[in-house]
Each structure stands twice: as C-alpha cells, then as structure tokens.
Specification:
The protein is of the alpha+beta class. It has helices at 3-16, 29-32, 73-84, 100-103, 108-115, 144-154, 172-185, 253-263, 354-357, 438-452; strands at residues 22-25, 38-43, 47-54, 57-62, 89-98, 124-134, 137-138, 166-169, 190-195, 200-204, 207-218, 227-235, 241-247, 283-284, 290-295, 297-299, 309-316, 320-328, 331-333, 336-340, 377-388, 391-401, 413-420, 428-435, 458-460. The chain has ten helices and 25 strands. The longest helix has 15 residues, at 438-452.
C-alpha cells in the first residue's frame, strides 16, 4: 500500500466510521441511548490518525489526508512492537494525544503545540481504538469487543502506545455511572458507547461560551414581532467579529418578544449578509447585547477533513458591517440559548475567541481576501410607491449577480426586497433570497412582486 492510498483511506475512514456516530448530550443520555449491552470507552481529546505498519515502518495520516511526522517516538514504538511479535503488516485507527501527566486532561490544542517542536515529540501518545487489518487479513467486520481484545494483545507492555480503555456493561444506568465518574467528576472529554442495537453513541457534556448578538430574524404567523433566531459572534483580539452560529433554541416566548422589541431599533447597514434556515436574511444590529449559549460539540472539520469556515466581519461607525474574509473556524452542534449576560460587555475580553480555541484548535489555512474580488452586476431594479395623502410607502426589489460564487463564500445570485411603510411599528423591513440559478432568482422576483404589489401601487423608474 502506497502513501497516497493510506492518505485516501484516512479521509474516507472518518466519513464512514466516526462521522456516523450519534452525538448525544450527556444530560439526555437516558433518553437517547438504547440497547441491553454496551462497550463504553473514554473519548480522548486528540487528533484521529490512521496508522499503517509494513516493512518495519509505521506511517500515520490524519483524517484530512496529511502525513504525520514519521519520527514520532510513539510511531517508532508501534513499529518496534509489531516487528518483535512477528506482525508483517497492520492497519488501525488511533487517537494521537498529549500525555496526561503534564497537562491534566488531554487537550487537542496541546497536540499542535507538541507537533510543532521536536523536543515535545516524546509527550505524544497513541491510543488505538479500531483494528482494520493484520497481516493482510480484513478485520474491519469483527465485533468491537473482539477488536479491542486483539489491540490489547498487539500492544501489551508498551509505554507510548496503549489502546483506549473499555468497559462492558448491561444497562443504560451503568453507562450513566461511567459518564458521571469520567466526564462529570474527572472532566474527561466524553464517552464512545457501542450498543448491542448497532448504534455507536458519542456522549459529551455541553460547553458554554459568551457571545455578542449581531443580528436577528423575525418569526412568522403567531410569532410575528418575535425573534426567531439570534446571529452571534465572538471577537478577535483586533476587534474583528467572528460570526459563529445562529441560535433559536432555548428562548421562551417572552424572551423572543423582548429581544425583538430591543433589537429592532438597533439595526445597522451591512454589506455582509447571512440567512436563517428559511433563506431569510438576518437584520444586522449594533453589537450591544451579550448572551451565554451552550453547545454539545465544537467541530472544526467536516467528514472529509476539510476545515469549517467562519466569516470575519468588522463594524464601521458610518458604513455598518463589512466582510473581511472567511477563515478556518468552527461549527457548533445543537447550540442553545442559556441566558443574557448583563454583566458582560461586547469587547475582546468578555466575548473573546479563546473561549473556543481553549476547547478545539482551528484548522490551518488562510482567510479569503475580499478586497480584490470582482464587483457585483445589477440584473433588475424595480421600485413601487403608494401615496396616501402626504405620506408615501415604498417597495424596492433588487436582483444582482455577485460574480464571487467561485470563492465559496457568496451565492451566485441575490434578491433583496426593501419594504418601507410609515403605518407599521416596524417601518422598514428587508428580505433576502439567494440562488445558484439566474432563471430561478428571476422567477422568485416575479413571485415576490406578485405577492406584495397589489392595487394602489405605482411603479416608478
């Protein structure tokens, strides 16, 4: 097997195996985990590796396909051990982490620090957790308990290489006891639970961070004049905002109404836009409110090992928000509103980005530079007015082609509807729609005009 094959296998492995684990909030363990028999293993906070041993050499690749330095002492120990017991080839998955003896609970960010300096290489450990092949024999189909037994035999009496510790149990109550002991009391990252029902659960506690509210969308129907989602961001040291997640869960009806009344008067202009799950654009607001949110997982890569992206934006006193660039970042799973933090301010100390980087390391990469991108092209501009006495209501429909879709950060086409009506409490409303198809965006324009322009409206040039 050549290095290119191993690299491809490493990327494919994360998508096929850990990428399909069911993520469970530890507080809801009893509700989500099913089965009669379980193998429970501790989840280490490290970097997943696919390790291949052949011809007396152990080679490892991360799930992004990048080769790990071959001179790590733990990889040399893999090679020495397997050679000594007569194994000619082996393929297994393992977690690369930093020794607990120096850092307390292992942290993924410590792996990057150790990998950057050869003098820290001896702090790195390997914890095999899945055996795929030995001496050319496919073992991937074996039950997990049998795989763990074989891994223990292969790496018995090693110092830097030790399979993850597992415990068999016969009830969800026992799984809860293990979770409380390892995660709640000792602060471990989480558990991986293999169930007799065929499912594999990744059980983790929720982490909370403080974030700035930078935008909101309005609900529909009975939830009009209420917040649907809050757009949130953390702050970089230079004052730039890193937009990370939209949060709607956890808000009560009263809180939705109160936030709407407070935020609708704080709207600001924005060259940058983000949409909610309906495709409705967030109304951007002055960053004056800090809230605490919780998430059960902070993910920095997708199942193919590609980095998650966050938009960096800056706020100008006169021009509003501007996009600075997209940069490798994080996606939050099951993000939920916890409470407002009236004791916090929107500053680089109270909503600092290190709240996240203390939990996970961003993938390496460069921000997308928007300064040299092509200008957008206006495809349609239609304006309608309706006069009642001395007052005038206005509706404006604008369609443009961004010419920036190749960046991966912009849609190809955008439709914006601006609706000004003096008789409403919220006099100015905006709505955005996006599409990758020119014909579709023009159809949406026709539909939006038909829906909103009734008798009494006059189109002006």
């Amino acid at each position: 097997m050549n290095l290119k094959d191993i690299s491809s296998l490493a990327q494919d492995y994360k998508r096929r195996v850990p990428g399909k684990f069911m993520l469970v909030d530890g507080s809801k363990l009893e509700e989500k985990v099913g089965g009669q028999e379980f193998l429970v293993t501790q989840k280490l906070d490290g970097v997943m590796q696919l390790v291949y041993y052949a011809d007396g050499v152990a080679t490892a690749f991360g799930t992004g396909g990048n080769k790990t330095p071959s001179d790590l002492p733990c990889l040399k120990e893999v090679a020495n051990k397997l050679r000594s017991i007569g194994v000619t080839s082996a393929l297994f998955a393992a977690e690369l982490y930093v020794s607990l003896s120096d850092t307390g609970r292992e942290r993924v960010c410590d792996v990057a620090i150790a990998m950057a300096d050869v003098k820290f290489f001896d702090k790195l450990r390997l914890a095999p957790f899945d055996l795929l092949e030995v001496d050319g024999k496919d073992l991937s189909h074996l039950p997990i308990i049998e795989k763990m037994h074989k891994l223990k035999m292969l790496f018995a009496q090693c110092g830097l290489v030790s399979p993850v510790k597992g415990r068999q149990c016969t009830s969800v109550a026992e799984v809860r006891q293990i979770y409380n002991s390892l995660v709640v009391e000792r602060g471990c990252e989480g558990l991986v639970v293999h169930s007799s029902n065929g499912f594999v659960y990744k059980i983790k506690p929720r982490h909370t961070i403080d974030v700035a509210v930078i935008g909101f969308t309005e609900g529909e129907g009975d939830h009009r004049d209420m917040v649907r989602d809050l757009l949130t961001a953390v702050m970089e040291q230079d004052g730039t905002f890193r937009q990370i997640v939209a949060v709607g869960g956890g808000l009560t009806e009263q809180q939705r109404s109160e936030f709407f009344n407070r935020l609708r008067d704080k709207t600001v202009e924005s060259e940058y836009f983000e949409t909610d799950s309906r495709g409705v654009a967030f109304q951007m607001v002055k960053p004056e409110i800090v809230i605490e949110i919780s998430s059960v997982d902070f993910v920095t890569e997708n199942s193919m090992g590609e980095p998650k992206q966050n938009m960096l934006i800056e706020l100008d006193c006169n021009d509003g928000y501007k996009a600075v660039g997209k940069t490798p970042g994080v996606a939050l799973h099951s993000a939920t509103f916890v409470r407002e933090r009236t004791d916090k301010k929107v500053c680089s100390e109270d909503v600092r980005v290190t709240q996240i980087t203390d939990l996970c390391e961003f993938s390496k990469g460069r921000a997308i530079d928007y300064g040299h991108m092509p200008l957008s092209t206006i495809l349609s501009r239609r304006v309608f007015v309706k006069k009642t006495g001395l007052k005038t209501a206005v509706q404006k429909f604008l369609v443009w082609q961004t010419n920036k879709e190749q960046s991966g950060a912009f849609p190809a086409y955008v439709l914006c509807h601006i609706d000004y009506n003096y008789s409403r409490n919220e006099q100015l409303k905006r709505d955005l729609r996006v599409s990758s198809s020119r014909s579709q965006i023009m159809e949406l324009l026709d539909e939006m005009i038909l829906l909103n322009i009734k008798k009494g409206w006059e189109e002006i040039v």
